[in-house]
Design goal:
Length: 382
């Protein structure tokens, strides 16, 4: 019966988190997950790292089973908010008591390069593996030096491939890291043998083995067609509620209000999608609390581990703790003197402390951030 059914549109990690959250919150009705991929939920971050190194078996990617009905290989194609129903690609109308959209995102595509490799899903990673596994010293071209592009470049070099990376901006990850960190990261890759061509606003003729890694865009078309408000993502409050009755959204497709930053943010990271889905699932079950967490993600490139905390908000100043360019070190990002994010290289301890500062909205000075003798953890206890 629809009065006991929660329909989850999307089958990724946010769907998994939501199904778990629903049960944790006490919901004992039907949960139906409708996912376009033929696979159940899996850990997407490894697709550009250990999975490509063949250091992680395929079966270890998948998350534990959830107490839900899985309808894989199909998707929700229409939402009918007034009727409290959806229509699936199988042609079936399906009533719901509550609907959760976790439709995720898709790789941004470049015109004329539809046959290139776009790394977003497990099947994409398997396709890329066939290129990396070629005998005879194959070469790989990558368009885009964001996190995905940089991670795959590192994997390919470790595996002995010649790698050329084209980046339109003047440095890798310029918008996220700024010019100094970007320049340092460029040096890391060039020092490992990557032919990194920055400022590449026009691309040369590319070979058949090319990875396009120029970001992702949220899948909001389903919500838009149903008249649900979107702006850079499906807009939701701190409980995951859209402006349509009994319709929620979570994960990569959503732009949610975060009370810690007093801003609506959209975060494209696995950990946030999992935890946001869980929180919204609990909200649907009647056991909700405002989702007020500091986003965190990690990236492995060669022997370097990067960790970032923050919501990707704008900043106007950086402060360095440690010796810049020599791990472990951390760069803090400030806006009008207020800490809004941090990136650590081999410095997980400092990033953990920065996360607590952000969670507690703890005032901290530039000198305190820079001074390695200052115990940042102690500041959060005040």
């Amino acid at each position: 019966m629809s009065e006991h059914r929660v329909v989850i549109a999307g089958g990724g990690v946010a769907a998994h988190g939501a199904a778990v959250g629903l049960r944790q919150g006490g919901f004992d009705g039907d949960v139906v997950i409708i996912g376009r991929e033929s696979h159940p939920s899996y850990e997407r971050p490894y697709l550009s790292k250990r999975y490509l190194l063949r250091d992680l078996p395929r079966e270890r990617l998948f998350l534990p089973r959830v107490e839900a009905e899985l309808r894989l290989g199909q998707e929700v194609v229409e939402i009918q908010p007034d009727a409290h129903a959806v229509r699936t690609s199988a042609g079936e109308p399906l009533p719901y008591w509550r609907l959760l959209m976790v439709t995720g995102g898709r790789s941004r595509r470049l015109a004329g390069l539809d046959d290139a490799i776009y790394l977003r899903e497990l099947d994409d990673a398997d396709h890329l593996l066939t290129v990396l596994d070629q005998d005879g010293g194959a070469a790989l071209e990558i368009v885009g030096a964001g996190f995905i592009g940089c991670e795959v470049a590192a994997v390919a070099r470790i595996r002995g491939l010649a790698v050329t990376v084209y980046e339109a901006l003047d440095q890798p990850l310029l918008r996220v890291l700024g010019p100094e960190l970007g320049e340092w990261l460029a040096g890391v890759h060039r020092g490992r043998g990557v032919d990194l061509r920055t400022g590449a606003r026009e691309l040369p003729a590319l070979g058949k083995d090319v990875l396009i890694a120029v970001g992702m865009q949220p899948n909001v078309e389903l919500a838009q067609a149903a008249g649900i408000r979107c702006d850079g993502g499906v807009l939701v409050d701190e409980f995951g509620r859209t402006d349509a009755p009994d319709v929620y959204a979570a994960g990569d497709c959503s732009r949610f209000w975060n009370p810690l930053f007093e801003a609506a943010v959209r975060v494209e990271h696995y950990n946030t999608a999992l935890r946001h889905g869980n929180a919204v699932g609990r909200s649907i079950a009647g056991d909700g609390k405002p989702f007020a967490e500091v986003p965190w993600f990690w990236s492995d490139q060669y022997d370097l581990n990067f960790q970032y905390v923050g919501a990707g908000l704008s900043w106007d100043e950086t402060v360095v703790r440690g010796r810049f360019g020599t791990p472990p070190f951390t760069v803090f990002f400030l806006d009008a003197g207020r800490l809004v994010g941090a990136l650590g290289v081999g410095d997980g301890r400092t990033i953990g402390q920065a996360r607590r500062l952000l969670e507690g909205r703890t005032p901290v000075t530039r000198d305190q951030l820079a001074d390695e003798g200052v115990d940042l953890k102690a500041l959060t206890r005040r």
